[in-house]
C-alpha cells in the first residue's frame, strides 16, 4: 500500500522519541514529507538524516519547545517555507509525570504536565489550522491515551491532561466542520506502549523491564503491551485521505482493555 500519503506534508511533535520516530518512519514510507520537531534537536536531526538516507529530501528537523507559543509560530512558518505547505499536524509530544496520589501532587509538577500535554495541543491547532485549511484536506491527529478515558489512581495529572486532549480534539473537529475549511481532527488513545513513558513502571519493578511489561500486560485482553508501530499505522490512516469522512472520533489502541 505504498504511497498512501503521497503529496502529504506532516508536522510531528516529539519526533525524536519512540512513538514519534515510528510515526515518522511509517509516514515517510507511505510518501509523506515531514517536519520533525522536538526539544531534543539532535535527536530530531538524527531521525531526519536517517529518513533522508532512504527517502531523499523527505524530512526536515527543528528544535521546538511545544509550550512556547512563539516557537510554534516560528516552527510552522519555517516548515511551510521549507516543505511548501502543511496538510497534517500530529500533536505527539507529551510526558507521563509523577506517579503520586492527588494529596502528594506538587502544583508545579501538575502545571508542567498540563503545559506539555494540553497547552501544546491547543497551540499547535491554533497556529496550524490556517495552513491545514489551505491544503484543501487537512488532518489533525492528537495523541491522547487510554488514560484519558479511564482513570488510574496515582496518575491524576496525566489522566486529566489526556482527557483534555480527547475532548479538545472534538471541539476542534466541530469548529473546523462548521467553518467548512476541510480540516479534520481526531484523537488516538494508546494503552501501554514500549517507549520511554513506561520507565517509571520499570523503575517500580526494580529496573527489570521484562517484569514490568509482564505486569502491565496482565490487564490487557491480548496479554501484551503495544509496539510503537501499532500506533504509527493508525496515525498513517488518519493522516491519509482514506479517513476523509472521519472527524471528532477517538481511536483506542489498547488490546481490548477498554472493552472490559
Automatic annotation (TrEMBL):
Protein EC: 1.1.1.175
InterPro entries per record: NAD(P)-bd_dom_sf, Sc_DH/Rdtase_CS, SDR_fam
Family annotation (Pfam families): adh_short_C2
Any one GO molecular-function label of the UniProt entry: D-xylose 1-dehydrogenase (NAD+) activity
Catalytic EC class: oxidoreductase
Keywords of this entry: Oxidoreductase
NCBIfam families in the cross-refs: PRK07069.1 (NF005473), PRK07231.1 (NF005559)
Protein name: D-xylose 1-dehydrogenase
Amino acid at each position: 500500500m505504498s504511497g498512501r500519503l503521497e503529496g502529504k506534508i506532516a508536522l510531528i511533535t516529539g519526533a525524536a522519541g519512540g512513538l514519534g520516530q515510528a510515526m515518522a518512519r511509517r509516514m515517510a514510507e507511505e510518501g509523506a514529507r515531514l517536519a520533525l520537531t522536538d526539544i531534543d534537536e539532535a535527536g530530531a536531526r538524527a531521525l531526519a538524516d536517517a529518513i533522508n538516507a532512504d527517502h531523499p529530501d523527505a524530512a526536515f528537523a527543528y528544535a521546538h519547545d511545544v509550550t512556547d507559543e512563539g516557537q510554534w509560530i516560528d516552527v510552522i512558518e519555517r516548515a511551510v517555507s521549507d516543505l511548501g505547505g502543511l496538510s497534517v499536524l500530529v500533536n505527539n509530544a507529551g510526558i507521563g509525570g509523577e506517579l503520586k496520589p492527588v494529596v502528594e501532587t506538587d502544583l508545579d509538577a501538575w502545571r508542567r504536565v498540563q503545559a506539555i500535554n494540553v497547552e501544546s495541543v491547543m497551540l499547535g491547532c491554533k497556529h496550524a489550522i490556517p495552513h491545514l485549511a489551505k491544503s484543501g484536506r487537512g488532518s489533525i491527529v492528537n495523541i491522547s491515551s487510554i488514560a484519558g478515558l479511564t482513570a488510574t489512581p496515582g496518575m491524576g495529572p496525566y489522566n486529566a491532561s489526556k482527557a483534555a486532549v480527547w475532548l479538545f480534539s472534538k471541539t476542534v473537529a466541530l469548529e473546523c466542520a462548521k467553518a467548512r475549511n476541510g480540516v479534520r481532527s481526531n484523537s488516538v488513545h494508546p494503552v501501554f506502549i514500549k517507549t520511554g513513558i513506561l520507565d517509571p513502571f520499570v523503575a517500580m519493578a526494580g529496573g527489570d523491564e521484562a517484569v514490568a511489561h509482564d505486569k502491565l500486560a496482565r490487564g490487557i485482553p491480548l496479554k501484551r503491551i503495544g509496539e510503537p508501530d501499532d500506533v504509527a499505522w493508525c496515525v498513517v490512516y488518519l493522516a491519509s485521505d482514506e479517513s476523509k469522512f472521519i472527524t471528532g472520533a477517538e481511536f483506542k489502541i489498547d488490546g481490548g482493555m477498554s472493552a472490559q
